[in-house]
């Protein structure tokens, strides 16, 4: 464990807590894309299949349970909670996210480190996570008023993978044979997708005005 | 944390 990875995990945890806080306290998921939440639930479900077979540390297992639990409960809230589900703007959140799942699955079947069931699904989860934010970014561009909590959620979610990139550089420099091109490229693509969001987020923060993405 | 492969990451 290094400080970059810890910072990344804590940022990721914070993004999930911000979203759960928003949904649980103000009982609203306005501006939040259910499609992105469903993709993330699939990402964690396929990434953490080894939760019962391999144990690294209490921290590792605990965080996996938190990410699994939070992502599925957010999907449950947005789909079935009587109050929250009414605040979900179904008409705007129309990104066909299944068009993201299939190509990622095909790519994982083509490009992976080992051709085993767990490894292919794990690789699939990496590719899917890289693009999972797209429905959310599209929704943000459609809904003009981005409330602070949603903006913070996306910002933290984008930041965590940036810390992971620093972690991979650190581990490459300090651990022999630590080379994982698939993870690195997927993580880089994921972070780059946030680039324009980050730009407008910082602009709104600097000029102290509401966050608005160009249509 | 042990193991050099990246499965020990979240």
From TrEMBL, chain A:
Cross-referenced InterPro entries, in alphabetical order? ER_ret_rcpt (IPR000133)
Instruction: Kindly list the residue ranges recorded as spanning the membrane.
Output: 55-77, 98-115, 121-140, 152-170, 182-202
Q: Does the record carry Amino-acid biosynthesis as a key word?
A: no
Q: Where in the cell is it found?
A: Endoplasmic reticulum membrane
The membrane topology term of the UniProt record is:
Multi-pass membrane protein
Give the UniProt keywords, A-Z.
Answer: Endoplasmic reticulum, ER-Golgi transport, Membrane, Protein transport, Receptor, Transmembrane, Transmembrane helix, Transport
Query: Family, per the entry?
Result: Belongs to the ERD2 family.
Q: What is this protein called?
A: ER lumen protein-retaining receptor
Where is the organism placed in the taxonomic lineage, from the top?
A: Eukaryota, Viridiplantae, Streptophyta, Embryophyta, Tracheophyta
Q: Which gene name does the record give?
A: LOC104773136
């Amino acid at each position: 464990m290094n400080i970059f990875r810890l910072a990344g995990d804590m940022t990721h945890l914070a993004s999930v807590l911000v979203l759960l806080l928003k949904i649980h306290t103000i009982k609203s998921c306005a501006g939040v894309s259910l499609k992105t939440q469903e993709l993330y639930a699939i990402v964690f479900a396929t990434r953490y299949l080894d939760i019962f077979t391999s144990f690294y540390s209490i921290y590792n297992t605990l965080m996996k349970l938190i990410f699994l639990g939070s992502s599925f409960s957010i999907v449950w809230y947005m789909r079935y909670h009587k109050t929250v589900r009414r605040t979900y703007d179904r008409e705007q959140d129309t990104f066909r996210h299944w068009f993201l799942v299939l190509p990622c699955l095909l790519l994982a079947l083509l490009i992976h480190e080992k051709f085993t069931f767990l490894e292919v699904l794990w690789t699939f989860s990496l590719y899917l996570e890289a693009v999972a934010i797209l429905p959310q970014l599209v929704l943000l561009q459609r809904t003009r008023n981005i409330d602070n909590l949603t903006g913070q959620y996306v910002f933290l979610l984008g930041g965590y993978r940036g810390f992971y990139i620093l972690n991979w550089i650190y581990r490459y420099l300090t651990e022999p044979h630590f080379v994982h091109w698939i993870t690195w490229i997927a993580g880089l693509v994921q972070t780059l997708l946030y680039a324009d969001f980050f730009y407008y987020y910082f602009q709104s923060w600097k000029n102290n005005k509401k966050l608005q993405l160009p249509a | 944390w042990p193991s050099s492969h990246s499965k020990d990451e979240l």
